[in-house]
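pasting Prefoldin subunit 6 for the record, 129 residues
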Amino acid sequence: MSTPAVRDLQQQLENQANALNKIRKDIAKNHQVRKQYTIQHGENEMVQKELELLSEDANVYKLIGPVLVKQDLAEANANVAKRIEYITAELRRMDGTLKGLEEQQNAKKEEILKIQQRLQVLQSGKAKT
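structre below
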């Protein structure tokens, strides 16, 4: 039979484990979204390099839905630069979020370890009596 103290620690352990799992899911989601932004960043940098190769009188078209619309080269360059700037800012923000989540994860692991140690002490002390 377990004592109320043991049951309380087991409940705390379960709660902390659930919280840790949620943090891990958030980290995985962050990695997935970050991966998508990284791909978009690379694609936009490639477009920017291609636009730099064009002469000023070259025709540039933008795909809007099913239609290609003629676009000014300077406007196309500006749009791509803005997208790269936005994606870079999002990547930085996500890195900060990820760092915070990893710190939370480490703190939860420490809490779980402490609870497990207290539980072992209680259970080993009870086994001796």
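Helices lie at 4-53, 73-128.
The radius of gyration is 27 Å.
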